[in-house]
Amino acid sequence: MHMTKTSSYLMGKGPGAEPGVDVHRNSAYLNYGHIRQNCVIELTDYSSVRSSFGRMTNQEFINYLGSPKASERDPWVKVRWINVGGISWDVVRALALKYGKPDLHPLSHVPG
Length: 112
Known about the structure:
Elements: H1 5-11, H2 26-32, E1 40-46, E2 51-56, H3 58-66, E3 79-85, H4 89-99
C-alpha cells in the first residue's frame, strides 16, 4: 500500500492517536511558544475540614511549580485545584512538566 505524505502525517494524528503535546520537544516550543498571555492562576487546596486559596501571576506560578518544597501539599490537603484564567505557553508547559501523565486529571485540557 502506497502512502502519501498527508496520509502518513494523519496516521499519528487521527482517532486513537496519543493526545496532547510533548513539551520536552523543541517542535512544541516552535508551534506554541508564541502563545503568551498574562494569566490569573488560582490555586485551591481543600479537604472536608479546611481550605486554602491563592492567586498568582504567570512567573509566580512557574517559580512555585519549580520549587519542590513550595509546591508540596500539606498533609491535610485532599484535593489541589488549579484554575488558569487565560492561556500562555509558559504556564501550560510548567503544568505539563510538573503534573504530566499520569498525574494530570483526564478532564484537564492542554491544547494539542
